[in-house]
Design a protein that fits this description.
The structure is a single chain. The protein has about 120 residues and is mainly beta. It is built from no helices and eleven strands. The strands form two sheets. Strands 2, 4, 5, 6, 9, 10 and 11 form a seven-stranded mixed β-sheet that branches. The protein has a four-stranded antiparallel β-sheet with strand order 1-3-8-7, with no helix packed on it. β4 and β5 form a beta hairpin. It is globular, with a radius of gyration of 13 Å. The N and C termini lie far apart (about 40 Å). The model has no long low-confidence stretch (mean pLDDT about 95).
């Protein structure tokens, strides 16, 4: 019943920008912490940015200063603005929601229970 649907991925040249969106349904969106993860072939899933139910944010060092996470509780949508994209940013990007934890670990995969299908981001030189 809970669904998260990502969009906005695509191909972009290094240095360019993309904005990912994740539309949620089947949950009281404002009560959940949500986050973005990514996974490249042969690598573990990496937490990139999270935003909790109070709108506090946390970023991985690899994207800090380049990516910005935000949420719109009215639209039940999570966003990831990605600037200054690099070749190493190429991956499948996933949005995820927790189960309403009071103190979620915003970059920890194990704290998130609901996942979208992913959207591919490919950065070329």
């Amino acid at each position: 019943q809970v669904q998260l649907v990502e969009s906005g991925g695509g191909s972009v040249q290094a240095g360019g920008s993309l904005r990912l969106s994740c539309v949620a349904s089947g949950l009281t969106f404002s009560r959940y912490s949500v986050a973005w993860f990514r996974q490249a072939p042969g690598k573990e899933r990496e937490g990139l940015a999270g935003i909790d139910y109070r709108a506090y944010t946390q970023y991985a060092d690899s994207v800090k200063g380049r990516f910005t996470i935000s949420r719109d509780n009215v639209k039940k949508t999570l966003y990831l603005q990605m600037n200054s994209l690099e070749l190493d940013d190429t991956a499948m990007y996933y949005c995820a929601a927790d189960g309403g934890l009071r103190y979620p670990r915003l970059l920890s995969e194990s704290d998130f229970f609901y996942w979208g299908q992913g959207t591919q981001v490919t950065v070329s030189s």
